[in-house]
Amino acid sequence: MDEDIESTGLVFFGKVTASISHELKNRMAIINEQAGLLEDLVLMAERGVEIDLARLNRLSGAVKTQVAMGDRILRNMNRFAHSVDSPRRSVDIRSLLDLTTALAARLATLKGVNLELYPGPEAVEVNTSPFLLMNLIWLLIEAALRESEPGSELVLSFEKDKEAAFIGIGNGLEGKTAGVFSAGKEADSLASALGAELVSGDQNRGMRIRLSIA
Amino acid sequence: MKILLVDDEIEFVSALAERMKLRGIDAEWTATPEEAVGLAEKKCHDIAVLDIKMPRVGGLDLKKRLEKQCPEMKFIFLTGHGSEEAFKNGSTETGSEFYLVKPVRFETLLEKLHAIRAKSTGGRKNG
């Protein structure tokens, strides 16, 4: 693999795993405080203070919710880790975008931007490298976020015609999203390695990745 | 002791505030920096416990806003970034030794709060 692409990939891997570890730490911090609160309430009960059982039930439910969220984060991490299993394979673009949206959600949230995945018209399968494609989408999301205002919406979408699949970033229907942007030479190198093209989105809003289906 | 807790994770910050209240601490919480400034306009808290990374306005920027409102306010920072490097950078950036990594041991946080309070009141106990 090209050295530049490898280095871009390592940076991407680092950013994603750092974001995941941050998310997991947040879940653990919440569980830690909720468990501590349960402990406090039990201590109070031992001292004769009447405890609202419904409250205890709510707290226990809240802990379960956090565990479920942590599990979802770990499942995404596992899918991400396995994206390097084979250099090329048949990739369901919807599933890949689902994962990339979930991984980049925190990045967008910190910027105050709502990252949305618009449902595509049908399943789109492309023979490609899932890791490199996610890396390219990630770079475009980062670039779009730099151009986005807090409170705006950044949209990921996909569609296909007879010859190619298109992944759109930023070309929201409401026109509130980032305009045409550049994701730098790293994105160009990745696109080239994937045999993809970077083209501007509809009405010059955002960017699109064109992947040949053939 | 009046404490202001600010973190965008509502479940975390509300539980933390409740645990403090059970110990007789006057703790208020909010999940948004904007509301934190609003709360500080109504009364100046002794110490603010701020999450470093929050949407739009981070803890460090919020500190500057709160300091304008309440120059005497002291600060403790919380973060989910647990690396040693992040800890060092955070301590340097905040200019504070009170930089705690989540999940925080509640007793450690209480110790820090009391230590800051004792320092700022010169050891006088007033709540």
Account of the protein in words:
The complex is a heterodimer of chains A (214) and B (127). Chain A is 56% helix and 17% strand. Chain A contains five helices and seven strands; from the N terminus they run H-H-E-H-E-E-H-E-E-H-E-E. In chain A, the strands form two sheets. Chain A has a five-stranded mixed sheet with strand order 2-4-5-7-6. In chain A, strands 1-3 form a two-stranded antiparallel sheet. In chain A, a hairpin with a 6-residue loop joins strand 6 (196-200) and strand 7. The model of chain A is unreliable at 173-178 (pLDDT under 50). Chain B has helices spanning 10-22, 33-42, 59-69, 84-94, 106-120, and strands at 2-6, 26-30, 47-51, 74-79, 99-101. The longest helix of chain B has 15 residues, at 106-120. Chain B is globular and about 35 Å long. The mean pLDDT of chain B is 87. The chains are: A alpha+beta (214), B alpha/beta (127).
Helix content of chain A: 55-70%
SSE-based structural type of chain A: alpha+beta
**Oligomer state of the chains in this structure:** heterodimer
Order of helices and strands of chain A: HHEHEEHEEHEE
SSE order of chain B, as H and E? EHEHEHEHEH
- Bulk shape of chain B: globular
Largest sheet of chain B: 5 strands, parallel
Mean pLDDT of chain A: 89
Question: Could you say which structural class the secondary elements and strand pairing of chain B correspond to?
Answer: alpha/beta
Enumerate how many helices of chain A there are, as a single number: 5
Number of β-strand runs of chain A: 7
What does the radius of gyration of chain B come to?
13 Å
Strand order of the largest sheet of chain B: 2-1-3-4-5
The span between the termini of chain B is 5 Å
The gist of it:
The complex is a heterodimer of chains A (214) and B (127). With 214 residues, chain A is α+β, with helices and mostly antiparallel strands.
Furnish the topology, listing elements before pairings:
The complex is a heterodimer of chains A (214) and B (127).
Chain A: H1 3-46, H2 53-81, E1 89-92, H3 93-110, E2 114-117, E3 125-128, H4 130-147, E4 153-160, E5 164-169, H5 184-194, E6 196-200, E7 207-212
Parallel strand pairs in A: 2-4
Antiparallel strand pairs in A: 1-3, 4-5, 5-7, 6-7
Helix pairs in contact in A: 1-2, 1-3, 3-4, 4-5
Chain B: E1 2-6, H1 10-22, E2 26-30, H2 33-42, E3 47-51, H3 59-69, E4 74-79, H4 84-94, E5 99-101, H5 106-120
Parallel strand pairs in B: 1-2, 1-3, 3-4, 4-5
Helix pairs in contact in B: 2-3
